[in-house]
Amino acid sequence: MLHADRRIGRQALMLVLDEDARAEVIQKQGWIGCVGKVGSMDAHKVVAAIETAAKREGVIGEDRYREGHALYHAILEALQGVTRGSLQLGSVLRTVGLRFAVLRGNPYENTEEGDWLAVALYGTIGAPVKGLEHEAIGLGINHI
After folding, report:
1. Which among 20, 61, 62, 80 has most CB atoms closer than 10 A?
2. Residue 54, beta-bridge partner list
3. What is the annotated quaternary arrangement, including any partners (predicted)?
């Protein structure tokens, strides 16, 4: 059963929206996580920045395929939200400026459920002209 105080997606969204909440969210739940920023006209650069931060901060292991694979799918799901279903950016003259949060932990009362990953993205998307963008948010959750 999903524990109400341990909704990993909700916590990731709170973390991406409130930079100061990082230590409190992560310590309270006993989870691990990271936050960062990325801006690009290329979706693969967004994916790479988030994966690099997650590995650097120890959220996922560098040599564990299943962890990287779970993170990859959570990132793509979150990007789908930001891009409204189309992962195209530069090829259709769109750019993003995003903050990201990655959380890893078990949101369930039963510890045998294992760890899950949540990726939250918040920022802007639009034409590559300053001032012509709008806000966007995305969330992806995947089990390891």
Report:
1. 80
2. none
3. Homohexamer.
